[in-house]
Write a structure and sequence with these properties.
This protein is mainly alpha-helical. The chain has helices spanning 27-48, 50-81, 91-97, 102-106, 108-111, 114-117, 125-137, 139-142, 155-164, 176-187, 194-225, 228-256, 269-294, 304-335, 338-345, 352-371, 374-378, 380-402, 416-439, 450-454.
Length: 459
């Protein structure tokens, strides 16, 4: 690999900017329009069915949040590795990571919908009465010997209904499974309560905001200062940042997704969401940087050699995601413990079986054989197609993770509210991100390793 020379001249800060007359200069307006439409539709959804809408919003929130978190991860890890090859494309994930504070605002509908999403947080008589009536009307649904056939998100209500009926003709519903579930929830109340839940959410957003601000602000200041000390500062801080990022992402996944089924748990659920975020972040970096390069904005700063390595990273994290996801399934299937198998039982019945199989094929089998080829990784158009495909699969996977809890029966249902929520969350976030793109150089022109990155070659 070639080395830098003292005569190497750094690009001007005004280079690699989006021209005012370019189509990309209006991308944020288009995203804002989509976001406004989604917000209007979401307002209608909230007023018509707040319960169903709460789950639609959570699904969209977690799907788009994964893109921002994945982008932040790659900013941190490139500094920790002291990588030079990634400098020329690093600004794209930096800008996407800078949008993390937007999610604090987008979290508001979740914060006000805790009773809908996590009913076990509050012991409300009205909810118990509804569950009691459902148990009286539907013997097959409520009398099951386990919670497998019911929405586990409402399992606390079912358990309460069984307890109420113990002395009034419904004592048969108070099974050992119900008792175990109730005792499990009771043991977790110190952690799973509204106050501590809200405090942790604030901590997550503060940590993510500080991490993105620390790395992005210093990278931007280096565009004009062009000093090496800034690079050293970010590299020194990256190990602590990685530790902070990993813990905050893991606990956020526990709080907002795994606790939809509070009696169920997996020690690698946080790792799974990290893998989801890594794949989504890389897929977004590849897709957006390809679109910018195709528009002539990035010039020769990001070349086939860079896309080749990005493709290898995408393929590697796809395999890592498959390994984690399959390991969780295999261990639960092998142990065959009823309170653990509920997670997959819920996603194999009530119309979910076809969706689950299609997701396995579309999220792993097809992209695995598509991206494994070196030729695909070096043909940027095909690589961008594979990345865009994985982004679609990512959204469907988040739907699969959240939406089985949206209805009492756990039945599969696509609803216009899901589209409204995705438009609102993605549109709002992308409007901020694309607007930032119009204000900044899209290449870290002041990084001392940029010259080496521009000459990067895969060997």
């Amino acid at each position: 690999m070639a080395t830098d020379t003292k005569s190497s001249k750094a690009p001007s800060p005004d280079r690699y900017r989006i021209p005012r007359d370019a189509g990309w200069s209006n991308a944020w307006k288009l995203a804002a329009g989509v976001g406004a439409l989604g917000i209007a539709m979401s307002g209608m959804a909230w007023s018509s069915d707040p319960h169903r809408f709460a789950f639609s919003w959570l699904f969209a929130f977690m799907a788009v949040l994964a893109v921002a978190l994945g982008s932040l991860f790659f900013v941190i890890v490139q500094h920790m590795a002291g990588a030079s090859w990634s400098v020329s494309w690093r600004r794209v994930p930096e800008i996407f990571a800078s949008g993390l504070p937007v999610f604090a605002l987008l979290f508001v509908p979740i914060a006000v919908s805790l009773d809908e999403l996590y009913p076990w947080m509050h012991h409300q008589p009205s909810a118990h009465e509804e569950a009691h009536e459902a148990a009286s009307e539907g013997g097959e649904h409520a009398s099951g010997e386990s919670l497998l056939g019911a929405s586990i998100a409402h399992a606390q209500d079912h358990g309460a209904a069984a307890e109420e009926g113990h002395g009034g003709g419904h004592g048969e519903h108070h099974t050992p499974q119900h008792a175990l579930h109730e005792s499990t929830i009771e043991a977790k109340t110190a952690f799973l309560n509204p106050t501590f839940f809200g405090i942790r959410a604030v901590i997550y957003f503060v940590l993510w905001g500080l991490l993105s601000w620390f790395f992005v602000s210093r990278s931007l200041s280096q565009d004009t200062k062009r000093d090496t000390k800034t690079t050293q500062t970010m590299q020194s801080a990256s190990p602590v940042a990685t530790f902070t990022f990993a813990l905050s992402l893991t606990f956020a996944a526990f709080d907002w997704m795994m606790s939809l089924e509070p009696a169920w748990y997996s020690t690698i659920f946080g790792v799974q969401y990290f893998a989801v975020s890594a794949v989504a972040g890389l897929a977004t970096i590849i897709t957006v940087s390809y679109a910018l390069k195709n528009a002539g904005i990035l010039g020769e700063a990001v070349q086939t050699e860079h896309y080749h390595d990005l493709g290898k990273l995408l393929f590697g994290f796809l395999v890592f995601w498959a390994y984690i996801t399959f390991s969780q399934f295999m261990l639960i299937w092998y142990a065959s413990i009823p309170e653990e198998t509920t997670y997959y039982h819920l996603r194999w019945n009530e119309g979910w079986q076809t969706f689950t199989l299609a997701l396995a094929l579309g999220h792993f089998v097809f992209p695995f054989f598509f991206l494994i080829s070196r030729n695909i990784k070096r043909r940027v158009q095909l690589l961008a197609f594979g990345a865009a495909w994985l982004l679609v699969m990512h959204v469907l996977e988040c739907f699969w993770l959240v939406m089985p809890y949206a209805s009492e029966t756990g039945s599969f249902e696509l609803h216009w509210m899901d589209i409204a929520a995705v438009l609102a969350v993605a549109g709002t976030y992308l409007a901020f991100v694309f607007f930032r793109m119009t204000q900044l150089p899209l290449i870290p022109v002041g990084d001392p390793r940029l010259a080496r990155s521009l000459r990067h070659e895969v060997v």
